């Protein structure tokens, strides 16, 4: 078994230092929870205990301890004997480039196949998060309705909230409104019966789950520097798999500011509290760029005349041969996935908070116009 772990870890660009298992593969396993951990000795016990309490014997935890210098493994060893669930701890050190959340989460998901080959569902969470009661039932209810990926909301650990300086109230409200407006506009253009508006619309590595069979179709995570959760969600969408944004499976995560990864929640919290004019989430676009993205998506996914699709893609910057190839794809959602990844004009560029605020009135107007008209009748340069 360790030989399989070692080979897989090596292919991912790391070296295996140890594998410890308690009590081995459980015949009752239906779930595997993947947790990447780096120097998480202070928080890992709470994360594991909350999983054990919620899932019990149907769970196998795959803990990836990567590039770690504290006592994370020792803490796990000290509590492993009290657990009902199975647990596998895999310790690795990355070769060359240091650890990152996307690399670690991708490796953890792949190791789950070796640690818990009989699990039906894969749950993604973080070492600084605790699952809340009812999460397992909510996920199983959603999978029972045929969903392939389910994304739950992420709260903050209440005991930590008071210790963190709050955002400026106006800044917090502006960012929240801008995100909500963008998602509502997208929902008007592309209504989704599985996710009627309003819904939380997000995905975070601390709280989403997929069926193993769907991950084998759409996985692995794309090789991105951050936001691997969103990148995987886009792949699920491209393969036509069913995605549910569900309010019921909940976790609480740390609101600490000592970020270990680029682009994570902790980094965003730190920027918003310490910088006068921070970068905001790259998913928040100017109204003109959002409108362009939505129009191009409607064209690629819905236009019957595929020659017109190819011509527009060439005009937007794709080489003719590639534009013809993508326009001819029978799977329209996959065609859009490729177009969005390859067109230079659709590359996301983070805005500063001040710039976002300047665009907020225009985004409100774009929502009003979109709500009052069919999406395909909205003016080309709205916003």
Automatic annotation (TrEMBL):
<dbReference type="InterPro" id="IPR001173">
    <property type="entry name" value="Glyco_trans_2-like"/>
</dbReference>
<dbReference type="InterPro" id="IPR029044">
    <property type="entry name" value="Nucleotide-diphossugar_trans"/>
</dbReference>
<dbReference type="GO" id="GO:0016757">
    <property type="term" value="F:glycosyltransferase activity"/>
</dbReference>
<dbReference type="Pfam" id="PF00535">
    <property type="entry name" value="Glycos_transf_2"/>
</dbReference>
<keyword id="KW-1003">Cell membrane</keyword>
<keyword id="KW-0808">Transferase</keyword>
<dbReference type="GO" id="GO:0005886">
    <property type="term" value="C:plasma membrane"/>
</dbReference>
<keyword id="KW-0328">Glycosyltransferase</keyword>
<protein>
    <recommendedName>
        <fullName>Glycosyltransferase 2-like domain-containing protein</fullName>
    </recommendedName>
</protein>
<keyword id="KW-0472">Membrane</keyword>
<feature type="domain" description="Glycosyltransferase 2-like">
    <location>
        <begin position="34"/>
        <end position="165"/>
    </location>
</feature>
């Amino acid at each position: 078994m360790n030989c399989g772990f070692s080979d897989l870890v090596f292919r991912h660009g790391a070296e295996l230092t140890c594998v410890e298992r308690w009590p081995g593969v459980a015949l009752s396993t239906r779930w595997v929870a993947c947790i990447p951990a780096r120097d998480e000795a202070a928080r890992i016990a709470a994360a594991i205990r909350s999983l054990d309490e919620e899932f019990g014997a149907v769970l196998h935890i795959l803990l990836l301890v990567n590039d770690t210098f504290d006592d994370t493994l020792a803490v796990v060893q000290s509590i492993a004997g009290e657990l009902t669930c199975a647990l596998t701890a895999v310790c690795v050190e990355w070769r060359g480039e240091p650890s990152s959340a996307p690399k670690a989460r991708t490796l953890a998901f792949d190791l789950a196949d070796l640690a818990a080959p009989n699990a039906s569902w894969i749950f993604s969470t973080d070492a600084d998060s605790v699952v809340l009661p009812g999460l397992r039932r909510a996920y199983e209810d959603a999978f029972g309705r045929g969903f392939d990926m389910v994304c739950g909301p992420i709260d903050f650990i209440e005991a930590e909230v008071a210790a963190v300086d709050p955002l400026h109230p106006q800044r917090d409200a502006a960012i929240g409104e801008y995100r909500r407006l963008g998602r509502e506009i997208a929902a008007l253009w592309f209504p989704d019966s599985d996710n009627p508006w309003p819904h939380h619309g997000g995905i975070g590595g601390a709280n989403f789950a997929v069926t193993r069979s769907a991950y084998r179709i759409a996985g692995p995570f794309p090789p991105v520097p951050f936001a691997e959760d969103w990148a995987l969600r886009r792949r699920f969408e491209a393969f036509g798999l069913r995605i549910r944004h569900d309010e019921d499976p909940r976790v609480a995560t740390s609101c600490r500011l000592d970020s270990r990864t680029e682009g994570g929640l902790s980094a965003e919290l730190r920027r918003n509290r310490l910088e006068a004019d921070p970068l905001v989430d790259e998913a928040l676009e100017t109204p003109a760029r959002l409108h362009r993205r939505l129009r191009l998506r409607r064209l690629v996914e819905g236009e019957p005349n595929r020659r017109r699709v190819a011509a527009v893609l060439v005009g937007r910057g794709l080489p003719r041969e590639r534009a013809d190839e993508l326009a001819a794809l029978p799977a329209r959602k996959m065609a859009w996935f490729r177009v969005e990844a390859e067109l230079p004009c659709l590359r996301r560029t983070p805005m500063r908070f001040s710039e976002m605020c300047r665009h907020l009135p225009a985004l409100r107007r774009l929502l009003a116009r979109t709500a009052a008209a069919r999406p395909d009748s909205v003016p080309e340069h709205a916003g």
